[in-house]
Amino acid sequence: MRRRRARRGLAAVEMALLLPLFVSLLVFPLFLGRVFWHYTAIERAAQDAARYLSRVPLGDMNNPARAPAAAAVAGQIVAAELAELSPGSIPYGLTTLCDGQICIGVVTPSTVTVNIQLYLEDTSFSWLTWQPLPLVVEASYPYIGR
């Protein structure tokens, strides 16, 4: 009878020692899935904004008054697509470039690029990530507007 009680105690100690390992094996894939979900959403937003900029009519891209407005519309596309990531608490950086420079409508670009930088702060697993995780996506398309 005494051996049986000792084994019960041993099972409880083993469970107490292995439980953190099992929980961490469950938490890490959940965190990694969240990172990939955010990266995919950022990548899709950058591609959609760059695709829009690549199809803006030539008259708008050569006009110094309308080219920044087209870049602003690309920014609105990004904002709308990144709104699903969280209730708006994640700030991001957005850069729209025409041939490596800000789109100001002086020359016709050969490529348009959208760059998004986002820092993923994880409130659920803050003990796992001490600092925000930087996610950077860049999408480039050849300019085909006519």
Short description:
The chain is built from 3 helices and 4 strands; from the N terminus they run αααββββ. With 146 residues, it is an alpha+beta fold.
Question: Which tags fit this structure?
Answer:
4-stranded antiparallel β-sheet; alpha+beta; rod-shaped; 146 residues; single chain
* Average of the residue pLDDT scores: 85
Radius of gyration: 24 Å
**Elements, N to C (H/E):** HHHEEEE
**Largest sheet at a glance?**
4 strands, antiparallel
Number of domains: 1
Percent helix: 40-55%
Shape: rod-shaped
pLDDT under 50 segments (min length 5)? none
Strand content: 15-25%
- Count of DSSP strands: 4
Q: Terminal Cα separation, in Å?
A: 89 Å
Domain TadE-like: 9-51
InterPro entries: TadE-like_dom (IPR012495)
Protein name: TadE-like domain-containing protein
Your description of this structure?
Strands 2-1-3-4 form a 4-stranded antiparallel sheet. Strand 1 (92-98) and strand 2 (101-102) form a beta hairpin. Helices cover 50% and strands 20% of the residues. Helix 1 packs antiparallel against helix 3 (67-82). The chain has 3 helices and 4 strands; from the N terminus they run H-H-H-E-E-E-E. The N and C termini lie far apart (89 Å). It is α+β, with helices and mostly antiparallel strands and 146 residues long. The mean pLDDT is 85. It has one domain. It holds the Pfam family TadE. It comes from Duganella guangzhouensis. This is TadE-like domain-containing protein.
